Amino acid sequence: MQKTIIIILLCLLGIFVHPFDPGLLDFIYRFIIFAIIIYLVYTSLQSFQEEDTKKEDLRDFPAEIPSHEGPAALSEPDPLNLDGRVQVYSILNKEQRTKAYLKDQFDLLASLIFPDYGWIFYKNNEEIHTLHHQALVETELTEIPERLPVNGLIKILDEKNDIVIENNLDTTKNLITYYQHLEYKPGSFLGLPVTLSADEKLFFVFDSHHTSHFNIEESSILSNLIKNTGIWLQTRIRGYEILAELNLQKKLLGFARSLNQCKSINSAMEEFTVIISKEFEATRLTISFIQKNSEQAVIKKVVGQEDEFPVNTEFPLDEGLSGWVISKDKPYLIEDMEKGEYFIPRYNKSEKSNNGLRSFLGMPLTAGDRTVGAITLEHQSPSKYEDTDKLKLHQYASLFSSTFLRSLAR
């Protein structure tokens, strides 16, 4: 407003006020007046443009971004099933914001090195999963492998855990296995690792048919970009871990309230088995209790698959997996009961088959400082349960044990 008034006054001054006779001084006077007017008009227009730009930016600014790295701003998409167990692969492969970020980083890296083809691989233990592939030339690949073994240059990249540049590749050697059945044979390779956890990594991999395409001088800026990518992803994953833990605590609180409403140990056991079988998707769930003054236990509850060990079956504590959990007062996790040289019985030595059950997770049930029984979860798929499930089952079992102890005291 002040600039507008000054501009108007200067215009009036320049038009109607003539302190000098026509000549050089009059020209300089008018030149100064109109130069000031032009400057004020320019600065006013610039300030208006900046204000409009800020308003436009605010309209496009996502509401969650100021705290998007915190768990409160993280979405809870259905594919992640956040129940205390975070699958990193699901976050990378299904969570839209993370997928978009990975694609942006891929495009940024590709714009700096101009490769022919590019890949994003996810490694978990000894297996590689393809997260993203893109042809940066006109010729698209006809075969995109979903899974790969860790070998060749990918194995070197994994072991070195640093940028790998290989030019003048020997096409007669099997260094790059994901082009194994194609005519295309890369002449140069560039790999960038991103560490996510002790067992999990991402690999940004690029190649070109030229034998000397990638330059070692590019490694510094590429390494910095990958370092920042790793920090972003680790923060994102940690946010989901926190969110998953909060969800688990919420479920445990609801479970504790349900148990408190139970009038007997039988009703509490029924509530316990219903929730656990649903949470852990068990093919078979079994609850057993020690028999008094005996080295045996008896099955009191079975949910799911029936076999030759129904309710009221007695079994010794020193022969099978369930007895071991009770007698040793320790959890037991087996990824695959079919693996190994020897057959592992679940209850006694007379068993000949696991009836198609592969995964096993057992947890002791206690009352105070003594073990009173065990809960066992079995599933027909191998590797169904892992250490995070063992921790979660322990938390549920502890709440149930507290209820059991209160029932004994009544």
Features:
Beta-Lactamase; about 400 residues; 6-stranded antiparallel β-sheet; about 45% helix
Integer-rounded radius of gyration: 34 Å
Q: What do we call the CATH homologous superfamily of the largest domain?
A: GAF domain
Portion of residues within helices: 40-55%
Major β-sheet strand ordering: 3-2-1-6-5-4
Layout of secondary structure:
Elements: H1 2-16, H2 24-60, H3 88-94, H4 96-113, E1 117-124, E2 127-135, E3 147-149, H5 152-160, E4 164-166, E5 188-195, E6 200-208, H6 219-260, H7 265-280, E7 284-290, E8 296-304, E9 314-316, H8 321-328, E10 332-334, E11 359-367, E12 370-379, H9 387-409
Antiparallel strand pairs: 1-2, 1-6, 2-3, 4-5, 5-6, 7-8, 7-12, 8-9, 10-11, 11-12
Question: What can you see in these coordinates?
Answer:
A six-stranded antiparallel sheet has the order 3-2-1-6-5-4, sandwiched between helices. A six-stranded antiparallel sheet has the order 9-8-7-12-11-10, with helices on both faces. The chain has three domains: 2-60; 71-241, Beta-Lactamase (2-Layer Sandwich); 262-409, GAF domain (Beta-Lactamase). The protein starts with a helix and ends with a helix. Residues 54-72 have low confidence and may be disordered. It has helices at residues 2-16, 24-60, 88-94, 96-113, 152-160, 219-260, 265-280, 321-328, 387-409, and strands at residues 117-124, 127-135, 147-149, 164-166, 188-195, 200-208, 284-290, 296-304, 314-316, 332-334, 359-367, 370-379. It is built from nine helices and twelve strands. Helix 6 (219-260) runs parallel beside helix 9. The relative contact order is 0.08. By secondary structure, it is of the alpha+beta class.
